[in-house]
Amino acid sequence: MTASARWWPVALSHELGKQPLACQLHDLPLVLFRAEDGTPAALPDRCPHRFAPLSAGKVRDGQIECPYHGWRFAADGRCTRVPGTELERCDKPLLDSLPSCEAHGLVWVSPAGDRPAILPVAPAEQRQALDTFWITDEVECSLLEAAENFLDGFHTHFVHAGWIRHDRQRQAISARVRPLADGVEALYSEEGTQSGLISRLFEGERGISMGRFRLPGLAEIEYRDRKGGLNLLVSAWLVPVGNGRLRLFARIATARGWLPAALKRLVLRRLFGVILRQDRQILEQVSANQRRFEHLPVKPLDGRQDLLGPSIRLLIEGGEALDFEERRVEIRL
Ligand code: FES
Ligand SMILES: [Fe+2]
């Protein structure tokens, strides 16, 4: 995958304050800090002197100070102070800084040397005023496994039985699957009222819902009412951090209404906490099971109801847009 040419989120904007923040992207441990003008900076989290983690240091005047002997580094990786000696003029960076930026409530880093030409992938735009909050987590699974799990309706009757759907209360619906410029989308129409608890609490009649995946790792679910108004938008940025682990930054958005945002957040956070735990459990079982069968690798078997999984696999493996005719599938969800 051409992961190197893209922006990946590594932290929530509000998490990065006055102190350095450790994070990891594609097996590379990083330290994030804010330069004097407030813009985020990203350096490898290893002091070149004796390899102390810079994330355990302090930010001084917009530069990172190593906790061991106090060497200081600017956002571009140049060393600006070696306590105890006159610093020799040092124009060459001692650390390779990574391109970084801030957008959509997240701090982004590109593992490539140059700034990517493509902007950070944004959540679906909404016309209404929104109440939003974030949930973050880490799961032991791959990007593909997490994206497919998040966008697949057919596991919800079993993994989230009663919370999202019931196996005994399925309804016939039509789904359209179409390619996007940087991903793939499924539109589900005429879903009516859902059987699960979450829908009963937060939705009236559902008109249309969408599940979409966009490169390099945004999975979104959008529920709309019959008039096209937003009920719920969950945008989950999925980031492979390394060692088979995936970091999730999920932004939960609801249309601003009469219910106070803090109350919605309280209830939704609880509910999503349960759902996430259920998904994490099955995803980690899948990962562990794949390791048991490492010596007998096989390709996953797709069924007709796997609306997005095969496309997500192609997108992640190929790193570029897919070209296929929109197709319609009748399913019982
Ligand atoms: S290890 Fe960082 S200053 Fe010595
Ligand atoms: Fe799930």
UniProtKB/TrEMBL annotation:
Pfam families in the record, alphabetically? Rieske, VanA_C
* Keyword Phosphoprotein in record: no
Q: Does the keyword Oxidoreductase apply?
A: yes
InterPro entries attached here?
Answer: Cholesterol_7-desaturase, Rieske_2Fe-2S, Rieske_2Fe-2S_sf, VanA_C_cat
Q: Which keywords describe this protein according to UniProt?
A: 2Fe-2S, Iron, Iron-sulfur, Metal-binding, Oxidoreductase
Entry's transmembrane regions: none
This protein's name: (Fe-S)-binding protein
**Domain of life per record:** Bacteria
Q: Which residues form the Rieske domain?
A: 7-109
Mind telling me which PANTHER family this protein's record contains? Answer: 3-KETOSTEROID-9-ALPHA-MONOOXYGENASE, OXYGENASE COMPONENT, IRON-SULFUR DOMAIN CONTAINING PROTEIN
